[in-house]
Amino acid sequence: MKRIIIALAAGIIAVIICLIYFLFFRKEPVSDKRIYVTAGGKSFSAVLYDTEAAEELYSRLPLELEMNELNGNEKYYNFDKSFAVSSKLAGHISKGDLKLYGDDCLVLFYDSFSSTYSYTDIGYIEDTDGLEEALGQGSVTVSFTAGTADRTVTTAESTAETEQTTTAIQQTTIVTSTQTTTVSQTTSAETASQKEETVTAGSTAEEEKQMKLEIAGTPVTVEWEDNASVEALKELCKNGSLNIQMSMYGGFEQVGPIGASLPREDVQTTTGPGDIVLYSGDQIVVFYGSNSWSYTRLGHITDSSGRSLEELLGSGDVSLTVSPE
User: Fold this and answer.
1) Which residue from 24, 41, 212, 227 has the least number of CB within 10 angstroms?
2) Does 143 share its domain with 250?
3) Average pLDDT of span 280-284
4) Alpha-carbon distance 238 to 130, whole Å?
5) Does any domain span residue 181?
6) How far apart are CA 169 and CA 164, in angstroms?
7) For 210-269, how does the pLDDT look when each residue is reduced to its tens digit (9 = 90+)?
8) In this structure, is residue 217 part of a structural domain?
């Protein structure tokens, strides 16, 4: 009986060790290719993974890309030509990671955090000291050039990678704690905002007429949600139009900064074409495709003046104008 218990305990420990390795330490094999990533006058050495997408990127070098800002933790660029995809659930993003989102969106991360999005691994910057400062705020020009080939991965480097991953896990704990505090503060702000709201009478049609929306100068009809986020958006544009520069992302959405934080009522949502949502409290997203994530719904486009949503949103970056009726 004692032997059975010992064997069972050993089996459980082995499963736990395998699970921890799978979640936190599993990496794509590293190739023998390096690249240099240059921004803000500073150059960073990056290692490429042994993936088909990484090989394709290397074959396109040198590149000079105007990368857009998103979420305060990443810069991205949409290519015209797609890459081979071998995406998997990220779980954890490390500062300096270079990944492919969808089949045409190159993403360079300058912060570490947990993620439920799926990406194809491209590579990672080895020393990220000064990366955030070099990339700066907003869009930035980033150049990618070929580096020294024939790199041999040593035991010391493998140990260093493991130590970096352990540090990343610790950073994730800190980030999670910060996010929990932020959610708590946001919930309090929402509660206070809801207490101050005055319920006004009126038909659904009258509510819809309180804001107008134009996409690249084309007026669209929106059925707005009845929530605190929409009320706050109305308040932002009550004295004049709110102009938002949008950027294509992922091949199914346009996203842009509102310039202020709105109350959030995030729930796991599967969006469809025409849906308008609030992301991360300060980004407005308009979909011409579909995605699943945690959003606050703002409204839905019911009429796009005879033009398809993909025609309006899927051909390049657009401007969004929200104005009072």
Assistant:
1) 41
2) no
3) 88
4) 41
5) no
6) 9
7) 799 999 999 999 999 999 999 999 999 988 899 999 998 888 899 999 988 899 888 888
8) yes
Residue 111: which CATH number?
Answer: 2.40.100.20
CA–CA distance, 49 with 98 (Å, rounded to integer): 10
pLDDT of residue 132 exceeding 90, the answer is yes
What is the SS3 assignment for 284?
strand
Q: Please report how many Cα atoms fall inside a 13 Å half-sphere around the Cα of residue 213, on the Cβ side.
A: 27
Residue 70 and residue 135 in contact, taking contact as beta carbons nearer than 8 Å: no
* Bridge pairing between strands 242-245 and 283-287: unpaired
- Classify residue 40: in a domain, yes or no: yes
CB 300 within 8 A of CB 274: yes
Give pTM, 2 decimals: 0.48
Structural domains in the chain (count): 2
Same domain, 319 and 255: yes
| E runs forming strands in 30-164 | 30-39, 42-49, 63-70, 74-78, 88-93, 97-101, 105-109, 113-125, 140-146
